[in-house]
């Protein structure tokens, strides 16, 4: 049975919190290879942290939104705007360009969807394009759109890889006001002249730092070159790496910049390591953890598709209720695994970094880094899947 090691040994050159480290990265450096150093992964959560550190100025009732949208917001169960919603909704309603420095968990999706839906409702001939890095994120945004736009005569379509292209072509031809797309399939449909970016009066680039990490920077430049010059541009990214600066300049005009401290920072997460001395004991140590009562909803990260698949086979063999999302799974398989995990039909979800970024899953009790991520920022993204919405979570990192 593993024991928590509570040694506290932060060196002065090391990050003392995720936010601090990310701030450093924003100022232009990025660690490419993460050292196998336990002190990076041991940190006690701060109990009693308030969900929002910034003061909220508005209620949803204050915003000049059409009554149906207001009631959809209420039906969704949102009572108070998150900081980014508080600050972003009015400028977007006014048509301003915006740079939102915020990551998943901040409520940024609603921060752009709510005002864009209102604007589209008032100008039904206009259209919005939302470009996101992953298929899962696209589906998540579409689900949220459907809730907010219910009964407003506004329609959306999803343009993502791994799904039937002909159906997407048919949907685009019906001219929905909102298109949510991942870069690869979007480029494909542009090149086939199915979709014309000149038709879109507002464009959202979401999770831009991840799109750049995945290698979509040239595609983004290509998309921007095709956009109408008169447009509303919204740019969301947790950080602005130097590579993105140029893109940003060519994308937005006279933007308002909003930076929010993530509601779900690692401060809500108890972080610790699990030491293994030889590779053979790794799976059995993991097994010992997973059978414990408190490991109710566990997200396990591997680094490669191959590694994740191997662990998936092993844990399935051991009788765990488990799903996996990685690049070698079809979109249908990924979505089914994700839904079963969200609905508590399985206890464990295995994932690679790319497949899991931006995912919003409630009540994850534990994040386990079975393999180290490539960068510290990936580590922060991983552990941010637990300890969300004011709850406490635990992150355990295997090190040898
Ligand atoms: P996001 O950062 O957009 O992925 O949102 C993170 C989570 O917060 C999602 O589950 C949203 O449904 C939820 N959320 C966003 N805004 C609010 C709000 N104002 N009140 C309650 N929950 C919210």
From TrEMBL:
Protein name according to UniProt: RNA helicase
Coiled-coil ranges (or none): none
Keywords: ATP-binding, Helicase, Hydrolase, Nucleotide-binding
GO CC entries: cytosol
SMART domains: DEXDc, HELICc
Motif placement: Q motif: 58-86
Species, as recorded: Candidatus Daviesbacteria bacterium RIFCSPLOWO2_01_FULL_40_24
Gene3D superfamilies in alphabetical order: P-loop containing nucleotide triphosphate hydrolases (3.40.50.300)
GO molecular function ontology, one term from the record: ATP binding
Domain Helicase C-terminal: 285-400
Stretches the record annotates as Disordered: 1-28
Biased composition (Polar residues): 7-16
Ranges where the DEAD-box RNA helicase Q domain occurs: 58-86
PROSITE patterns, A to Z: HELICASE_ATP_BIND_1, HELICASE_CTER, Q_MOTIF
Family stated for the protein in its record: Belongs to the DEAD box helicase family.
Domain Helicase ATP-binding: 89-258
Superkingdom, taxonomy of origin: Bacteria
């Amino acid at each position: 049975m593993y024991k928590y090691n509570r040694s506290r040994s932060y060196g002065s050159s090391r990050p003392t919190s995720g936010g601090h480290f990310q701030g450093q990265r924003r100022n232009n450096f990025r660690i490419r290879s993460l050292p196998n150093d336990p002190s990076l992964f041991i940190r006690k959560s701060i109990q009693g942290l308030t969900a929002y550190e910034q003061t909220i100025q508005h209620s949803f009732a204050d915003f000049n939104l059409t009554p149906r949208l207001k009631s959809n917001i209420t039906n969704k169960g949102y009572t108070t705007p998150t900081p980014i919603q508080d600050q972003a909704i009015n400028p977007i309603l006014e048509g301003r360009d915006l740079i939102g420095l915020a990551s998943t968990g901040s409520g940024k999706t609603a921060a752009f969807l709510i005002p864009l839906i209102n604007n589209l409702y008032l100008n039904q001939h206009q259209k919005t394009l939302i470009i996101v890095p992953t298929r899962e994120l696209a589906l998540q945004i579409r689900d949220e759109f459907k809730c907010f736009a219910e009964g407003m005569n506004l329609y959306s379509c999803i343009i993502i890889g791994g799904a039937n292209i002909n159906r997407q072509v048919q949907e685009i031809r019906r001219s929905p006001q909102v298109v949510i797309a991942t870069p690869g399939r979007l480029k494909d449909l542009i090149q086939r002249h199915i979709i014309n970016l000149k038709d879109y009066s507002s464009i959202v680039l979401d999770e831009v730092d991840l799109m750049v990490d995945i290698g979509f920077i040239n595609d983004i430049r290509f998309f921007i070159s095709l956009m109408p010059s008169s447009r509303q541009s919204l740019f969301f990214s947790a950080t602005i790496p130097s590579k993105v600066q140029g893109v940003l300049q060519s994308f937005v005009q006279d933007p308002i910049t909003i930076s929010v401290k993530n509601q779900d920072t690692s401060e809500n997460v108890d972080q610790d390591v699990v030491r293994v001395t030889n590779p053979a004991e790794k799976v059995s140590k993991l097994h010992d953890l997973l059978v414990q009562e408190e490991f109710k909803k566990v997200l396990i990260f591997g680094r490669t598709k191959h590694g994740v698949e191997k662990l998936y086979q092993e844990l399935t063999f051991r009788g765990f209720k488990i799903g996996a999302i990685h690049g070698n799974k079809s979109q249908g398989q990924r979505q089914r695994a994700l839904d079963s995990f969200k609905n508590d039909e399985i206890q464990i979800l295995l994932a690679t970094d790319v497949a899991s970024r931006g995912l919003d899953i409630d009540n994850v009790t534990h994040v386990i880094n079975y393999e180290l991520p490539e960068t510290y920022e990936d580590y922060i993204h991983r552990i941010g899947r637990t300890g969300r919405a004011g709850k406490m979570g635990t992150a355990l990192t295997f090190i040898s």
